[in-house]
Design goal:
With 379 residues, the chain is α+β, with helices and mostly antiparallel strands. The chain is built from twelve helices and 14 strands. It has a single domain, classed as B-lactam Antibiotic, Isopenicillin N Synthase, Chain (Jelly Rolls), CATH 2.60.120.330. An eight-stranded mixed β-sheet has the order 2-3-10-7-12-6-5-4. Helix 5 packs across helix 9 and helix 7 packs across helix 9. It comes from Cynara cardunculus var. scolymus.
């Protein structure tokens, strides 16, 4: 990663983004309508549709969301990250997420960072724009035009840089940089387990980090995982300050999970799926807290790419097994040792900046954002 705030400008150039697309404000349903009643109504409507309509990809995906399962994420101890990912790669690849425990981030630091984040959202709207000027994707953003605070979020670099000396974000900055270290370790361990060349190992500037902070209490419309703002990433780290329930939108559908307090929920993103040539399942966006949770702010560290990057399938690397002095990776024991291979690519290369801009402003939770880049095999 970059070692100075100046390098941040290389990763995220301060260019003016095109005008944001108008947001669509959803009408709030009556508070007396329960979630189960809404689900039952949608289910009945789907069953009344003719087979030719009800079997479309979008409606099939909707069915999977209505029939969301409940699960506990696979737990991996951070000191055993490399060996655990190697032995549990199949499970992680299929689910697209797991939970880290016994990591090095003190719970007190996470709570102090949450306090810093809350203080930012308590600022008047004009001060948020003043302290965090738009330099997409960094800065303050909101879905609404008034000052109600609905749909507010902040994207900060790993230094939590601002244009104001009035803000004290020391705890948030330290927390972000500690999360970044863990995120890079996850990328390295995942690459090793799959026998893939990790770009960050040879060129630290090939990846970067974003701290994504959202005021979840003021976004009543974002009640489904994958809704709201989205940004592409390799891995996402979500510190669980409390033991809580949340939902994820994975390739298999909507999944409800229960996390442990002070653990880190790790999600694999769309860039990780491309890097792995489709072998890793992805999670879209960030976890969405269940409605009964009282948490009003969420903090997610995204290990992602500089905007000028090109996204493509990673090459396999040669591993020599035990005693190899060129690498510390332990490839999954159930896999062959890889050399350079002519494996057919399932994705075409594409511009990260164009892709990120489209994903950020599209926000269609049921749409496969990578569909246009998938290479259709000829039968």
């Amino acid at each position: 990663m970059a070692s100075s705030a100046q390098n941040h400008q290389q990763h995220f150039p301060a260019t003016s983004a095109p005008p944001p697309t108008p947001s669509i404000t959803s009408t709030s349903t009556s508070t007396s309508t329960s979630d189960s009643a809404v689900t039952d109504l949608l289910s009945r409507l789907l069953h009344r549709l003719p087979p030719t309509l009800s079997d479309t990809p979008i409606l099939l995906r909707r069915r999977s969301l209505l029939a969301a399962t409940t699960t506990s994420p696979l737990v991996i101890s951070f000191p055993d990250l490399n060996s655990s990912l190697s032995s549990t790669l199949t499970s992680v690849s299929e689910s697209g997420f797991f939970q880290l425990t016994n990591h090095s981030i003190p719970s007190e630091l996470a709570r102090s960072a949450e306090s810093d984040s809350l203080s930012l959202f308590n600022l008047p709207r004009h001060q948020k724009h003043q302290h965090f000027p738009r330099s997409w994707p960094l800065g303050f953003d909101a879905d609404d035009e008034d000052d109600t605070g609905a749909g507010e979020s902040l994207f900060l670099d790993s230094f939590c840089s601002t244009d104001s000396s009035e803000l004290s974000l020391n705890s948030l900055r330290e927390f972000t940089q500690e999360m970044e270290k863990i995120g890079l370790a996850v990328v390295e361990a995942l690459s090793c387990a799959m026998g893939l060349q990790n770009p960050a190992r040879y060129d630290p500037s090939s990846v970067c980090s974003l701290m994504w902070i959202s005021d979840s209490s003021s976004s009543p419309g974002d009640t489904m995982a994958g809704s709201g703002k989205l940004y592409p990433y390799v891995v996402g780290l979500h510190y669980q300050i409390r033991s809580q329930k949340c939902s994820l939108l994975a390739d298999s559908g909507s999944v409800s999970i229960s996390t442990q307090m002070d653990s880190i929920l790790v999600t694999l993103g769309d860039i990780a799926q491309v890097w792995s040539n489709g072998k890793l399942s992805k999670v879209k966006g960030k976890p969405i807290l269940s409605m009964e949770e009282s948490t009003s702010v969420t903090m997610s560290l995204l290990v992602t790419l500089p905007v000028e990057s090109t996204v493509s399938v990673l090459s396999r690397v040669l591993t020599r097994g035990h005693g190899d002095t060129d690498t510390e990776c332990n490839v999954n024991q159930n896999q062959d040792h890889y050399g350079e291979t002519s494996e057919e690519s399932k994705f075409s290369s594409f511009s990260f900046e164009d892709y990120a801009w489209n994903v950020y402003h599209d926000r269609l939770s049921l749409k496969d954002s990578l569909h246009r880049y998938r290479i259709q095999t000829q039968l």
